Predict the structure.
Amino acid sequence: MDKATALDQMFVSKILPKIRGTDSDELKEALEGLKTLAEGQGLQNTARHLKRMMEDRKSKGFVKFSPLS
């Protein structure tokens, strides 16, 4: 397994599930920063999850990790 795949799996399984909260500027900035990092490193699954989390923050007013189907 290459480094990018391992890092992608680590983010999706260990880091992203710990991110949750209600809408705030800090949460928005954190999600945007992580998404930029993920895209820059080629972490496709992480970027997809972060995109969904950002959409949930905007539409529902809170963020909670949920697996993608």
Q: What stands out?
A: Residues 28 and 54 are 7 Å apart (CA to CA). The helical segments are 3-15, 25-41, 44-60.
